[in-house]
Amino acid sequence: MLHTFLSVLPIFSLVMTGFVIKRLLPHTDLWQGIEKLVYYLFFPILLVLEVSKANFSDGGLLRALTAPFIATLLISAIMLVSKYFFKIENRLFTSIFQGGARYNSYVFIALSQSLFGDAGIILAGVFMAYMIITVNILSISIMNIYGSNHGNKKGLGSIIIALIKNPLIIGVFIGLILNALGIQITGAVKQYLSYLGNTATPLSLMSVGAGLIIMMDAKKMLGICYSIFLKLLIMPVITVALLYLLGSSGLPANIAVLFSAMPAAGNAYILSRQMGGDSEAMASIITWSTLLSILTVPLVMGLFEF
Q1: Whole-angstrom Cα distance, residue 252 to residue 213?
Q2: Is the per-residue pLDDT at 31 higher than 90?
Q3: Fewest 10 Å CB contacts: which of 4, 108, 154, 276?
Q4: ∠141-147-148 over CA atoms, to 5°?
């Protein structure tokens, strides 16, 4: 567990570096530009490089992918039942749901690399491509039903188009195509792309820190804590149980556990604002789940190692 904590510590130190620098350089355009570069250029290139050279002969990958998929559906069902059992207000519920279901892809890729090296990045890319579709359809459906901005509802067609245009998914699929065709990226092209891809991790983590908003609405504290509890602790426990039931092991299983332990995604705040959710509660869930995951990720990865 100590080894895991020491591996995780530099990742979250970069997050806190971004938080501090944002207070010293509070220029919104600067941080928006950095995040766009990471999202549209650096991370997709990193995924292309790693996925294109991956070996997907491990038969346990599908079982490992199945566990967080089922766990996400179960957590979603738990949140829907609790919404009606505890009569949770609609806008607050959208934030609780996103906090419990969505994951931070930047932190996920960085930790996959830190804990498991290049092989970790490869599997992280596959998990992301697999789970982005599920999580986005669930989240946008909930926002359509319970969000207050009815004029900004999204149909299934627009959801699918948005997923197809997602740069991270595009990066994974380009890598898969190159992999299937046996095309290797070498020489000066590889070196050039490596320079760009290596920029992704530090800048993405600092942008996560820059987006943190330290606040807590006392009236909504119970709902916020409930969402964080489901995401950081219950989701990993369910995932681990499913991995054992499915007979999954090795690196794919460890990546599945890491995926399940990720804090809430920063882009959940943007979706909450666009579609009439409780954006203040969403900001609190993102911030506190990110900060608490500094402790919960080493705990989960130390206790449940495959």
Answers
A1: 33
A2: no
A3: 154
A4: 150
Judge contact between 13 and 205, C-beta under 8 A: no
2-303 fold: Na+/H+ antiporter like fold (1.20.1530)
* φ/ψ of residue 153, rounded to 5: -70, 150
Please provide the distance, in angstroms rounded to a whole number, between the alpha carbons at the two ends of the chain. Answer: 13
Tokens of 291: 């900060």
Read off the amino acid at residue 157.
Answer: G
Amino acid 163 reads L
Amino acid 103: pLDDT: 94
pLDDT of residue 289: 94
**Nearest CA to 208 among 265, 132, 124?**
265
Q: Mind giving me the DSSP string for 202-222? A: HHHHHHHHHT------GGGHH
Q: Which of 98, 95, 123 is CA-nearest to residue 108?
A: 123
Locate 216 and state its tokens.
């807590």
Residue 86 CB coordination number (10 Å): 11
pLDDT of 58 > 70? The answer is: no
Quote the tokens at residue 270: 């943007």
